[in-house]
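During the no-cost extension, the postdoctoral fellow (Dr. R.K.) reprocessed legacy sequence entries with the updated structure-token encoder. One reprocessed record is reproduced below for audit purposes.
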Amino acid sequence: MLILTVRTDKPEAEIGLFDGGQELAYETWQAHRQLAETFHSKIATKLQSIGKDWNDIRGVVVYKGPGSFTGLRIGITVANTLGYSLKVPIIGSSGGQWIADGLAKIENGKNDSQVLPDYGPEAHITVPKK
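Re-encoded structure tokens follow.
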């Protein structure tokens, strides 16, 4: 079962392709402000590198945060859209073992259906001066 993993919470973006617990392909690149421009092509290139296409994806694991507002928003939106359009399970995960935890949940039949970002602590907003 081909699972796509996505992490976009920092300037270095990460995508991976896994079959069960076995890593088939993985890439980390400096996406920074070009994430929205490069993200889809990076996924397509990784899929092609192992002889697969978008329709072969059977699940998506996405890092849900905490992290960069814009980075998380882009990555999670793509992950949610793929999950919905391909009709495959999607899992939001965090922490040091986010990939292993997410893959295990998909293997056990879990599906978050939609992942919401965790941006971290609430913003500290000061009272406006008059």
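The chain is about 35% helix and 25% strand. The longest helix spans residues 69-86. The remaining legacy entries will be reprocessed before the final report is submitted.
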